[in-house]
Design brief:
With 95 residues, the chain is an alpha/beta fold. The protein has 4 helices and 4 strands; from the N terminus they run E-H-E-H-E-H-E-H. It has a 4-stranded parallel β-sheet with strand order 2-1-3-4, with helices on both faces. It is globular and about 30 Å long.
């Protein structure tokens, strides 16, 4: 049985690449991929993923802001934050 994954990444090329990488592993299946997190709570309700990959730096609403919204209704959903930032502030905010 594969784990369903929901992906949030604003860079279209990276989002497409991540989708492809996820689909190469039979243990995972990508149930949705989005370029922003404005509808993240609703999309999680719709897709019921087992796992979320989310970019920290997203347009209009950051991944960290979305994480706070998601946690209010899905406190136990595993979310893996993706980032290219190498500063501890972004990483600590995500934790």
């Amino acid at each position: 049985m594969s784990l369903s994954v929901l992906l949030y990444e604003d860079d279209e090329l990276l989002r497409s690449s991540l989708q492809s990488m996820i689909s190469l592993n039979e243990n995972f299946r990508c149930v949705g991929a989005y370029g922003n997190v404005l509808q993240a709570v609703e999309q999680i309700e719709q897709h019921q993923p087992d796992l979320v990959f989310m970019d920290i730096d997203m347009p209009e609403m950051t991944g960290i802001e979305a994480l706070k919204n998601i946690r209010s209704s899905h406190p136990d959903l595993p979310i893996i934050m993706l980032t290219v930032f190498d500063d501890s502030t972004h990483v600590l905010d995500a934790i």
